[in-house]
Design goal:
Belongs to the glycosyl hydrolase 29 family. Helix content is 31%, strand content 17%. It is built from 15 helices and 19 strands. The chain has an 8-stranded parallel beta sheet with strand order 7-6-5-4-1-10-9-8. It has a 4-stranded antiparallel beta sheet with strand order 11-12-18-15. Helix 7 packs across helix 13 and helix 10 runs parallel beside helix 11. The longest helix is centred in the first third of the chain and has 20 residues. Bound molecules: ligand H79.
Length: 484
């Protein structure tokens, strides 16, 4: 009996020791996600043959500006054959002003930690050197420079993570799928081309940190094969859930590392699994000549704060010109957000979602260790008040105050309501961050109640709802209903 017990104890202790020595399987499996989780903010680049047209074809506007599809959908929207699209645009693709060093520097200065560029969009044109099709920048254009090579190398030089968007399912040029999609390749040939393209992208450009697939089909076997290839060749690459169709249940998306929210949609609540939202700075993804619906720098800073509070990465898009330049409207905004990030970045990078599953009239929270960050998007001169956190703060101060002067704090221990006294005028009207520090790790009040007030509809019309963003605003609800 004693011996038995001893044996059991020994086995138990051995197991315990093993369990303590070896990291848990889940932590091991997702260690490649850590940089991505901490990064929070990246640059999306939509660039290709469609950029030359800028949303227009034969004098007609097909951009989202006119309620149509986004500018990179031109081939589909204007019903252009592969032959005509290539014949007209490929010979004009000569963006001599393209400077990878400058683009990466702009992203870095903006506070972005990674870059994802369209290596092949739905129009089938490859921005990289490939042996799988001659429809690529080296063979089909006068430019003959491998854009993916130049950008990937420059990202290494400047310390940013680099990844590619690759349209694996939709390819209007190559993929033949019956009468309405002639394509230059049979479906089997097309799938072989995708595999070859992936091998090239995963083998020829050093570290590939993100594989951003888009609009996946329902064939899980096909998607799994492509996902497995990514894991094999670049085990640390982070794979987008759009490798699979939305109809594939989440637990069947074997190789999806993060969930990508629908285009240009902000999360409406807290997401506790790895999630990213991709967002445009105006309506269109690809360069569009007629799109003036710019979001403001305050909008973008709000997106960053609310995405952070809801546990979501923000992949913010630019659509460079046919000459290879970012637009002044883009660089201005990126610079302004970057300056804000230099001061307030500690509330975003490596910070996690709000301790409470709601937000506040004044804004929302992020957290890190013993600190809660209040992102005050709408100033309340009477004081910034919140429920949901247990404990009397040790100190509160503005992140943009170099002196870190303490703000007066009152704490109602019965109702767990904390109030920070603030000056009459907002130190930063776009988002003033207040760091609220505690003596021990932040503790949420499990009984706390609250609602979401910011961007609570799943509307993509962020520009229009900008001034009507609070829940319960009937104007906003009417506007959303009208849009349907
Ligand atoms: O690359 C950007 C988009 O071009 C791409 N994803 C982002 C990142 C994208 N591919 N598909 N979609 C977005 C959604 C397609 C929506 C559609 Fe339509 C609605 C297809 C048919 C109806 C919009 C309207 C496009 C054509 C008509």
């Amino acid at each position: 009996m004693t011996a038995n017990l001893g044996t059991i104890t020994r086995i138990f202790l051995a197991t315990l020791t093993l369990a303590l020595l070896a990291p848990p399987a889940s932590a091991q499996d997702d260690s490649h996600m850590q940089w991505w989780r901490d990064a929070r903010y990246g640059m999306f680049i939509h660039w290709g043959l469609y950029s030359i047209a800028g949303g227009e074809w034969k004098g007609k506007d097909y951009g989202k500006e006119q309620g149509g599809a986004s500018a990179e959908w031109l081939m589909n929207s204007a019903k252009i054959s592969g032959k005509e699209y290539r014949g007209t645009l490929a010979r004009q693709f000569n963006p001599t002003e393209f400077d990878a060093k400058e683009w990466v520097a702009i992203a870095k200065d903006a506070g972005m930690k990674y870059i994802v560029i369209t290596s092949k969009h739905h129009d089938g044109f490859c921005l990289f050197e490939t042996n799988a099709t001659d429809y690529n920048v080296m063979q089909a254009t006068p430019f003959k420079r491998d854009i993916i090579r130049e950008l990937s190398e420059e990202c290494v030089n400047q310390g940013l993570k680099f990844g590619v968007y690759y349209s694996q399912f939709k390819d209007w040029y190559h993929r033949s799928r019956g009468r309405n999609a002639p394509g230059t390749m049979s479906n089997e040939e097309y799938l072989a081309m995708v595999e070859k393209n992936l091998d090239e992208l995963l083998s020829n450009y050093g570290e590939m940190s993100v594989l951003w697939f888009d609009t996946g089909g329902n064939d899980v076997i096909e998607a799994d094969r492509q996902g497995a290839r990514v894991r094999e060749l670049q085990p640390n690459a982070v794979i987008c859930s759009r490798l699979y169709s939305r109809r594939v249940p989440a637990d069947k998306r074997k190789y999806a590392d993060f969930e990508s929210l629908p285009d240009r949609m902000l999360p409406t609540e807290r997401m506790t699994k790895d999630t990213e939202t991709c967002m445009t700075m105006r309506h269109n993804w690809g360069y569009d000549r007629n799109d003036n619906h710019w979001k403001s720098e305050k909008d973008i800073i709000e997106f960053l704060a609310l995405c952070g509070a809801r546990g979501v990465n923000l992949l913010l898009n630019v659509g460079p010109t046919p000459e290879g330049r970012l637009l002044p409207e883009e660089t201005e905004r990126l610079k302004a957000v970057g300056q804000w990030m230099k001061v307030n970045g500690e509330s975003i990078y490596g910070a996690t979602y709000s301790p409470v599953d709601f937000d506040f009239w004044w804004g929302a929270m992020t957290q890190k260790n013993k600190t809660v960050y209040l992102h005050v998007l709408e100033w309340k001169p009477e004081g910034i008040e919140f429920n949901g956190i247990v404990g009397n703060p040790r100190k509160a101060h503005f992140l943009n105050d170099p002196q870190r002067k303490s703000l007066a704090v009152t704490y109602d221990a019965g109702r767990h309501i904390t109030k920070i006294d603030v000056p009459e005028k907002a130190p930063d009207f776009r988002n003033t961050v207040i760091a609220v520090e505690y003596d021990s790790p932040v503790t949420a009040d499990p009984d706390a109640k609250g609602k979401y007030h910011w961007y609570t509809t799943r509307s993509r019309r962020h520009t229009e709802i900008r001034e009507n963003r609070h829940a319960g605003n009937t104007d906003l609800l009417d506007a959303v209903k009208e849009a349907k």
